[in-house]
Amino acid sequence: MSLPVVVIGVSHKTAPVDVRERFAAGSDLLPEVLARLSQRPELEESMFLSTCNRVEVIALPKPGRSNEEAALVASRAIREALREHINASSIEEMSDWLYERSGEDAVRHIFRVAASLDSMVLGEPQILGQVKDAYDAAVSAGTLRNHLSRCMGRAFTVAKRVRTETHLGAGTVSISSVAVDLARRIFGDLRDCTVLLVGAGEMAEAAAKSLGKTARSIRVCNRSFERAANLAATFGGTAAPLDQLEAELAISDVVVTSTSSKSFLVTRDLVKRVMKQRKGRTLFFIDIAVPRNVEPDVHKLDNVYVFNVDDLEQEVAENMKARQQEVAAAEAIVDTELREWSSWAKGLHVQPAVVALRAKTRAVLLAELERSLGSRLKHLGETERLALHQMMESATNKLLHAPTTRLKAAAASADGSDLVDALVHLFDLPELNSTSENGQKTAAEAAVVEEPLPH
Predict the structure, then answer these.
(1) 64 and 89 co-located in one domain
(2) 52 with 145, same domain?
(3) One domain, residues 165 and 33
(4) Tell me, what's the pLDDT at 45?
(5) Shared domain check, 287 and 428
(6) What pTM did the predictor assign?
(7) Where does a domain end: 145, 170, 195?
(8) Which domain holds residue 242?
(9) 166 & 192 share domain
(10) Which residues are the active-site residues?
(11) What is the overall mean pLDDT for the chain?
């Protein structure tokens, strides 16, 4: 039977932002994390997903063990890799934050994450792009290949169906839009406010779209001035390089930060200097980055307010009421796709048996035919010999059609494993070991890779 997918991670449901940012890995660290996972002999495939609200390792165990043992061994390997990643003293130090899924529960979780059913903002569109980016990075690193790659492909199908067949993503509810709504409630319609976006990525762009034309002005400050200028031009704003951040803070009222910096860009000392220049005028920070861009102590300064992604959760809940009505329809799509995936995955252990049976039958018949052609039938010409080979191939197909069909039909049932065991025993198919003695896949196992995933 196919090995179980294993997922271990932290999310906004299990860990606060100061914990999640320890696990997070931007694009600069991702190759290092994937390399660490690929070096784990217990893991066959793996990918690493890091967003502002979750960090997950998705993996497939190495073959050669029972499903239960394989999942357990893979779990320990993943936890050890995460321990190294955050420099924890022990695996137990992380136990209060981590969640784990395996088998069908893991696949269901992956489908729900891609479809934004597990997001802080239900139905938000950014998560699918983030999952695809993580998928591309794993494929490029060579850590994602066959079975797990197909699982992620199915997850993308689920997300697309949920997006097109339900209204789960209706409206403009996102972390960025919720942040902007909060700013509007504090400052009014923002017509008298200057809004500064620190960062020029996808989250900053979403925040700019949510701001629309209501702010007095929009300014963009980013490490890459070119990216800042491009984003600012899109919304009629003004760009500045990151080394001018202090000057930009001095003239701004609402600051939305969303960079991938691993250290605080906005420190208490920096804001103390800025507030002297502002002569006490209120400064409002919305930090939607993980790791956080704004030092928490900034919030302790007079007339300075800081909200991070965890603070936005209550705001999100208020905006989710309309979307909750679409959850049942979206979950039904997940259930349907999961059943199809599970049926396909459970049938993987049947395919090697079918391949091995056909190979052995064909080899026996071919050997007998060649023996006859070398003795009693050696007088036959090329045309007659070809006709006999074609007849043998046809006989093989007809002889094995019924057992092959019934074996595949029983693949997803409890009888599937028993039938495979009986087939191996009755036809003496010892080559159906999961791996050969030197660790290489057998021809029968390799054939499973070529079995197409439904649609």
Answers:
(1) yes
(2) yes
(3) yes
(4) 96
(5) no
(6) 0.68
(7) 170
(8) 175-320
(9) no
(10) 52
(11) 85
| Residues making up the binding site | 51-54, 119, 124-126, 130, 199-204
Judge contact between 12 and 53, C-beta under 8 A: yes
Instruction: Give the model confidence (pLDDT) of 271-288 as tens digits.
Output: 999 999 998 899 999 998
Please state the rounded mean pLDDT for residues 16-39. 90
Report residue 401's pLDDT band, with 50, 70 and 90 as the boundaries. Answer: confident
Structural tokens at position 294? 């704004």
Reply yes or no: is the peptide bond before residue 61 cis, omega within 30 of 0: no
CA angle 417, 418, 421 (to 5 degrees): 85
Going by the DSSP 8-state scheme, the letter that residue 5 receives in this structure is: P
Of the candidates 196, 236, 243, the one whose C-alpha atom is nearest the C-alpha of residue 220 is 196
Q: In the chain, how long is the greatest CA-to-CA distance? A: 108
Domain boundary among 170, 193, 218: 170
Confirm whether 44 is domain-assigned. yes
Q: Return the CA Rg of the chain.
A: 29
Give the residue ranges of the annotated binding site for NADP(+): 199-204
CATH number, domain of 255, equals 3.40.50.720
Question: Under a CB-based contact definition with an 8 Å cutoff, are residues 77 and 42 in contact?
Answer: yes
Tokens of residue 449, six digits: 């890779």
- Of 424, 437, 403, residue with least CA distance to 349: 424
Q: What is the pLDDT of residues 180-202, one digit of tens each?
A: 777 777 777 778 889 999 999 88
- For residue 434, name the pLDDT band (cuts at 50, 70, 90): very low
User: Which residues carry a binding-site annotation for substrate?
Assistant: 51-54, 119, 124-126, 130
Name the residue with higher pLDDT: 74 or 322.
74
